[in-house]
Amino acid sequence: MKAPLLRLSARELGGAAQAAAAASVILAVLLQLMRRPEAVLAFAAAAAVLFGTSAGCLRRDAGLLEFLLTRNVTRSSLFLVRWAAGLIPLLLSLLVAASDLLCGLSARFWSLFVESGFTVPPSLSRTEALAWTAFALFAALWLYTVTFVFVSGTRDAGEMFLALLAAVAVFAALPLASLGLLALLSAAGLVDFSLVYRPLSAVWIVWYGLLCAAGAAVLALGLRWFEGVDL
Amino acid sequence: MSAAVETFHLTRRFGSLLALEDLSFSVRRGEVFGLLGPNGAGKTVTVRILAGLMRPSDGGYALLGSLRPARDPAVRCRVAYISQTLDFPASMSVSDVLRFCASLYPAWDASLASSLLARFSLPPSRPARELSAGMKLRLAVVCALAQRPAVVLLDEPAGNLDPLARREFLSVLAEAMERDEPAVLFATHQLADLERMVDSFLVLREGRALFSASMEDVRSRCRRVEVFFPQAVPPSFSLSGALAASASGRVYHALVMPFVAEAVQRECASASARFDAFPVSLDEFFCSLLGREGGEA
């Protein structure tokens, strides 16, 4: 049952996926020009919001939702398949951006045409590049899930706008709360705050786990709500 | 035979508005059950609850014996739903929609789908979203019947169809009744259409069950009675068994069920009046019961 539904969802998201794929290639080239790894994070956040919104706007097309949910399709499978259908192109886009950071893909691309400053590979160490990639990946997963769940509750553009604002607020709240907690733990002498500045340290690993757990919890809450909502 | 559709004290509130109150009925396999009522009576809410699109506030329902049919794939694949508000994926042609439905239903009848497609003159390569409202409804009918359902839920299905297409739709539905013997729940305004098919019906008003009967009972035991008085109708006059009554000038009108000619004759004679009795159509029955003129249900 899920395979045809996934194919349908992928087809419905096809336009957005193509646009994001094109944008990711262009941005990957630009990232190289900017020479700033933080840009990967900005790219990941933009892609997460784009795909979270595209995949999450289930209820905007009430007639289609009525058609799907009166077939042999359960609400939970539709919800999870739509979440997965948006996640796949998001991960592919991130792969392009991360490969630029890790392998200097755009530098190699430019070197086909010119010999200039553009063709110099990134100066980040492999560990730093991995750290930024992991940060971008987990932040994007968290933001994508929050955006998807919040947008799935909306039925028109006005509600969607408010949902996006709320999603961004919740997205930002978790890292800020985590930093606050870390500062408190550090003040109590339990944790060394400087671990934040060390790529892929235990603090980061725990934080990525926290993001995954929070994402799963938000998805479960969204699913529970979607199971009971009137359509 | 156990009921294929059963509701138990079904209640639905929207804030302070009570859209359905304590509604209980059942539909057996092979039975066509009409759900009638004026606009806002709760017909669509009832069908949408049974289709799993809404949740009841209180009470419950069972489809094919399952108390949680929305979560039971074995039941879901045997329940068909048709409404005017259905729409299809923008990325799919008519044949894509049928392929998609075929992949979801183990009992999908491809040859029946093809024959219905041809019968309804649906162009297979046309994007389903671009079909007219009537054509979309025909496609919904193909999708519903080719899954060989045991329960068919119809919410105002024929409203967008022209008279010929409506006749075709009813004939296709009658063939499905012979082939699969599904339980059909039919919420509609087209009472003339319903009368040809319906076995029993329930009239709803303001979310409450007002009256239920079998069509056979209405045909054999119900009459519209007109009582003619030499002068104005006495205010105290009423016929026993009158479901609804009104008086204008010298004529008293009543919908009487059960109609017993001798009893009516006796009551009229005692009031020095004479009477005529007529069989009633479903439309007349409905309008008399709800005490208003016009054919809209």
Q: Your description of this structure?
A:
The complex is a heterodimer of chains A (231) and B (297). Chain A has 231 residues and is an all-alpha fold. Helix content of chain A is 77%, strand content 0%. In chain A, helix 5 packs antiparallel against helix 9 (202-228) and helix 7 runs parallel beside helix 9. Chain A is flat. In chain B, the strands form 3 sheets. In chain B, strands 5-6-7-3-8-9 form a 6-stranded mixed β-sheet, with helices on both faces. In chain B, strands 11-12-10-13 form a 4-stranded antiparallel β-sheet, with helices on both faces. In chain B, helix 4 (110-119) packs antiparallel against helix 5 (133-145) and helix 5 (133-145) runs parallel beside helix 6 (163-180). Mean pLDDT of chain B is 87; it is low at 293-297. Chain B is of the alpha/beta class and 297 residues long. Chain A binds chain B through residues 1, 3-4, 8, 11-12, 14, 61-64, 66-67, 69-75, 228, 230-231, and chain B through 48, 51-55, 70-71, 73, 76-77, 79, 81, 83, 85-92, 100-101, 103-105, 140, 143, 147.
CATH homology superfamily name of the largest domain in chain B: P-loop containing nucleotide triphosphate hydrolases
Number of strands of chain B: 13
Helical residue percent band of chain B: 25-40%
Number of self-contained structural domains of chain B: 2
Largest sheet of chain A: none
Q: Helix and strand succession of chain B?
A: EEEHEHEHHHEHEHEEHEEEHEH
SS class of chain B: alpha/beta
Oligomeric grouping of the chains: heterodimer
Largest sheet of chain B: 6 strands, mixed
- Rg of chain A: 20 Å
Number of helices of chain A: 9
Could you tell me the mean pLDDT of chain A?
83
Given the structure, what is the number of helices of chain B?
10
What percentage of the residues of chain B does DSSP assign to strands (E)?
A: 25-35%
Total strands of chain A: 0
Identify the CATH class of the largest domain in chain B. Alpha Beta
Secondary structure class of chain A reads mainly alpha
Strand order of the largest sheet of chain B: 5-6-7-3-8-9
Uncertain residue segments of chain A? none
Shape of chain B: elongated
